[in-house]
Amino acid sequence: MSTIKLEIVSPDKMVYSEDVEMAIVYSTGGELGILSGHAPLLTGILPHAMRVKRNGGEELIAVCGGFMEVTPHKITLLASAAELPINIDINRAQKAYDRAKERLEILQKTPEEHQDIDSMRAHAALDRAKARLHATKNI
Ligand code: ATP
Question: Where is the ATP synthase F1 complex delta/epsilon subunit N-terminal domain (predicted)?
């Protein structure tokens, strides 16, 4: 099967650079399965565990939002944060998940008493934690 180069770049490093058979990504426009020869595309990326098919197997990689550029031979994903499962601290991700959940529950129960809680920020933190827990198969 023909391959396409996938590069995932976070602000401080190159997280992933491999020739892959397919990348399955949640973009702001929906789920995309990208193979070699894909039409050029520029889109936003949602926080999630993206799926990468390589050498007949499947890998999961946590990406925490960003942008993706696709050309027929290359996918470039610029992520605000991205981690391979082996580099994910599951305990830290679980704590971030619990913290965000608790904030959102408090806000839902007594919104008038908790105007200090930023709902969008808590939702975004929850989505990042979910991406990490999915990538490590802990959710
Ligand atoms: P936390 O509340 O635990 O800091 P966060 O979602 O706010 O989580 P980010 O702002 O997305 O964290 O990431 C900051 C940096 O920490 C990035 O370099 C990211 O790769 C890293 N990071 C965050 N959470 C984890 C984790 N669970 N395991 C490994 N690295 C992580």
Answer: 4-82
